[in-house]
User: What shape does this take?
Amino acid sequence: MEPAIFTPKKVILRILFAIIPLLSLLPISVLHAQPGTRTISGKVTDESNLPLAYVNIALNNGGLIRGTQTEENGNFSISASAGDTLVFSYVGYDTYRVAVGTENTLNVILHSSGSVLDEVVVVGYGTTTRRDLTTAVAKVDPDKIPLAANNSIPELLFGRAAGLRATLNSSQPGGSIDVSIRGKGTPLLVVDGVIYPNRALEPDNGSVELQGVNRGILAGLNPSDIESIEVLKDASASIYGVSAGNGVLLITTKKGRAGRINVAYDGSRSVVQNMPYLQPLTAEEYMTYFNQLSQDKYLSDKNMEPFGSNPANLNNFHPEYTEEQIASAGKGTDWLDEVLRGGSIDNHALTVSGGTEKVRYFFSGSYFNQLGTMERSSMRRYTGRINLDFDLTRFLSLSTNMALNRNKYVNPQAGWQTGGSGSQGFNALQAALAYPASVPVYDEKGKYSQFALTGNPVSLLNIMDETNAQGIFANLALDLHIIPKVLKARVSYGNNNENALRNFFVPSDVFWFQLYQSRASISEDRRQNQTMEATISFTKKLGEVLKIDAVGGVGRYLEDWSGVNVEASNLPDAINIDGIGQATGARTIGSYRGGQEFRSLFIRSNFDFLDRYVLSLALRRDGADRFFPDNKYENFPSASLGWKLSNESFLRDVKFINLLKIRGSYGLTGERPGELAYGIFSPDVVTITFEDGTVIFVPYILTQLDNPDFKWPINTTANAGLDFEFWDYRISGSFDIFQEDRTRMNIRATTDQLSLLPTTPINGGQQRRTGYEANLNLFPVRTPGFSWNIGVNYTHFKNRWIERFPNDPIPHGGSLEDPIGTIYVYETNGIIGIDQIIPETQPAGAQKPGSPLFVDQNGDGVLDDSDIIRFSSVPDALIGFNNSFRYKNFDLSFFFYGQFGAWGYDYTTLWGDPLNFLGQTQSGTTRIKDVWSTFNTSGTFPGVSYNESTVQGLNAGIDTRLAKRDFLRCRNITLGYTFTSPALTKYVSQLRIFVDVQNAFIITGFKGVDPEIQAAAIKGGPAPYPMARTYSFGVKANF
Amino acid sequence: MKNIIIPILFIATGIFITGCTKDFDPQITGVLSPINFPETEADFEAYAMDCYKPFGSKWGYPGVEWETMFFSPEYSHLSMNDLCGDQFLEFTNWGGLWEGFSIADFTFLRQQGQGSHYEKVRFITRMTKILEDLDQTTVLSPEKRDQLTGEVRMARGWTMFFLLHMYGPVPVILDPALIGTDAEADQTRPSEEFLANAITADLQYAADHLPVAPDQYGRFNKGLALGTLMRHYLMQNEWGNAEAVGRQLLEMGYSLVADYASLFRTATERNSETIWAVSCDVNASGDNLEGNFNAWSYYCYPNNMPGIKTGEGWGPGVGVFTVPWEYYDTFDDNDARKALLIPEWTTKNGQLKNRDNYPGAVVRKYPDEDGPQYQGNDIVVLRYADVLLMLAEAINQTAGPTVEAVNLVNEIRNRAGIDDLGAADTASKEAFNDALLRERGWELYFEGFRRWDLVRFGKWPDALIAAGKNPGPSHLFPVPQYAIDVSNGTLTQTPGY
Assistant: This one.
């Protein structure tokens, strides 16, 4: 350190240097240079060497407190005397105190505290802090989540917050993820204040049953543009009353900050590998099992021993395959290998942000390119965003957000057919499971081979199926600061406009749906959401006693949608969808259009008394066009109360408590009515034709009557919670318990049996959802060199009927109290073996060896409703579990999520059904090996003599396909290194490299493709897109 | 600053004011409103056309759940009435409805949910409502009113006939004043007499008002109404009434065609004998928005049997509808009707299939001679030969085997290329009755009548047991347990279940 040299010139200069920024930043502060002081200057950075701006620096010399802040580049200077204490404090970082010694230069590293007490939490129409929050609001910070392999916001949400459930429906690029709060439906999505559609925009491909698309919401947003995601779980959502019954997800994008230009680059390259998939039989196995099982079937059909009383006689049984054929079959074709591949992801994002006092900007552009792990399937997305904030005058500011996206998908041929077609409608992945390994890819003539009714798996990949989606999002808000920092008026307009086009073409040389025929479909959907709002907000602190924070406003919300589609057959392959008019075969056209409007008035006021009691009252009055005039409007009030115990005198001196707050909320929310209250004559979905189909009538049928009494559903939500932080943030967390009642629900209920309308919109039923959730954040170790952070969250909820819908009887074997989602089944216990005595209770159709043994639970000798047992399809517990370590410049984290206590049917077992297998329309998976037969009497799956669809007299399902869907998935393992070497930081202010493994492993007993993915019960068998593991390498740099 | 506040307040106030109920009506698009529909004659025709919905051949249509038509491939007249009979083998490969019907044990239908034919009790109510609206409007010409009301009553009466012979008497709403009242929840079964009278009334009205030859082939006609009424009378053992209706049909100009096989081929599907058939579109594939389709060769051919046009069937090695050799052998070798059953064929792999290695004869009543995917052969529902046999049956029941009655049967036998009935078959009322059932089997197999015939001739379940089947508790079907569960105790299960 250079010794302090005092020259008057230097002192004056340094004082000037210190004062100028102080004056500009803190115009109100008045500073007095004290005699005997000198100037101390330096830089404040965070652990990753990133400069921290606006860090508060207070000087304490025994009573007199002065202060300054760091500049944009983290530099500061302050005049101080030896013995003074400098206190550096910054939101979210540990406060750092240092006594002034002899040095004139002081570089300070602030460590992030882990405390979230002062973190800003966005709530509807305003913000608050974790400290003052009175409701159950969870926050997800995308910065803390590895983004490399993730293309959408829902991918960031797996296990990340208590009460928030994200469930993967498909692992295809852009695959659908159900997002739910406390197990409810898809929440209301609000992006920068604009209502955003909460379902995917996916045009279909006409009447074709080949439908691999299963993609999700928020596909147009670039996850790296997101500043924060807030989850409004309880009555906090009531301010969005109109449609907040399922809770609200508030998504806020990043904004520029005043300061020098910050250029950031985020890039990664990922390699994607399929996890183990359903395992097909080899050619030899296929032939062997075919012969064995067909022999059993022969015996069973002829009622021969051991299946019946006739003596076994196989003289007329001719095995399909000879010994020689079997011996020479070998492994055969690896069909899965023909249609699956290794994938990759390239993800690049560039951000330029910064600003001056008057203008702040944030520009970003991103490119995401994923090659799926199924041949041909891919996703490519470009996004661009401009967020600008202007302070036009002292009283007027303007902010605009604009975002564009373009997503291009090559749709995968995975999943399952949408209709009831069976093996003729299989996609390439299903076909790969259906084609026996004994069939070669090409026949002797060099053409694609063909098995049964199914198209050749490789040839099916030649089907063109592409979706191109675009979106424009714009939001404009004008703020009028009537009384700066006290009274503000705002008008805003937001618009989200999307369209998507799907091109589909089956070339004439692809055998599909039992035909060699060219088939084309073009389909386009568009939709628009408009949000118009005007609000007035008021904030005022009345002495130390009361702080008031109020907002009121009005809003109009318009939605409209439309689409067209054409479908035709028989056109040249070279023309395909580019000239669908050239088709000579049948043509189908369609279109639709619609819109709806909601109007609202709302007001919320927060009162904070003595920094101890926070009361929040809100009222929203919502209107929907779909109801009759007298029922258009409904009021949705809510109230919440927080008590900051830790600020009470009796706790204020308890040192280890940083925060202890109890809170409660109660409020009403609604749900956007899906149904209309007005009478309708609908075109029947079935045409009536005469004259060999040439005379066509479209009948118009009365599908619903005027229902003037139809009105808003009402959900009441009560929530009690506790927030705490102890021992300097080493332990923090929250706990919530809730009960929610859904009353007068809007549904299309089944009418009475003799009604001419099958269903009609009604207000009916009542459900009660209860549950609790907790999150806990721990720092077992926190030193400057090493820190270890554990985050855990836990969610439990259940939902039950209080009153069922009309004409919706309680399932047999159940009761009204059962949780919704209960699975009712008869239990089976193993397989009936040869010569085993068939109990009286075995139902008709399950009386032969090879049938599952039904359990007579109460031993009364009758198999009836009292023998039905119950399983829950809803998990008892959802957990998220994160461990992160920081050692010097290294960071390492493991993130897990999982569910426990959920059951479901594993329909991938259909590939192990011996009757499907013997139908000669499809091969099977290795599950066939577990089928009971006279060759495999220890088999655990029912044999050929049993067909579950003909078991008689049952009032519930059978448990043979039921499987536990518990799992613990290691979602991410991430190792990062941050460069701090001065040689580098000269050019790059921050540089971090990382490797990440996404879906590293899963711990589960489930044997289908993945316990999280529910495959459908479909003729033949479903082939969900395979689950994949992703290895990423990435760079994050700030210039 | 004022100049900024004012526009903002203006906008805010504007939004506020519109925030009430002004211009706040719903946009209702793509559908019509009861306010302005139906108004014109064309509207009423489109409205009334819904009466044809259950009488098509498509995969089905959405009701509360997915429902099938009477002539759909699944739960069709053929599976409900023929597959369960003594002329077809049990088919256990697919399980489900195919196995359930083929083994003649209908217990499985108890587990059917809201997609069963029982849901068509709603269709009866809908027809009642349409009839009321047709009755009240003044925009229809007398001819159009006759045709439309005739069609709707035909549909209602015929649906009740189908339901009566599936489930026994089912609750129906025939009085429009009951629509929208608690009566819709009352599933108390009426007496059979009540339902039978209602069927008679509807079909008689239809016969009196429907045109003999409608402008559009495929619409209901007078002959269909009379033929259905005649079958209804037979089922009710009202032989005299049946005979009277049969004699009316004799006078309508129908006649037997010379070539039996031609009745089921697309090229000759419109002829002097077929009274009503489901008019099929050769390009249709069962989709809701297309014409009716014929998929029957897929259900008849085994999957490795080369078809004429379609390539193969769906049956796994064996067709769903397969005629046992024992029944095949009952045909006279010269019988032209036997020729539509295939006793020997070569698989696509070159293997010869016949009675040595195949369980029965393949049905090729509807040859797959056309169509890119399915076939265009109209599905025959009522033809004159059936009327002649029904008339002979009615006469025999009242007057015994008269010469007229025997000649009616012989006319049919001769057309098929076989001799007159022998003396033994006409010796007594009972003998002739047996011969009539046998003849009906040969003439009308795979046309959807067998269960009704066996019941009417008193041969259910004996004929099935003789054919090696083990029939369930009743020739009638159980109503779905679901319907009982929601009926508040008003609906009783079909006896036997």
About this structure: Chain A has a mean pLDDT of 90. Chain A touches chain B through 101 residues (CB under 8 Å). The longest strand of chain A covers residues 519-542.
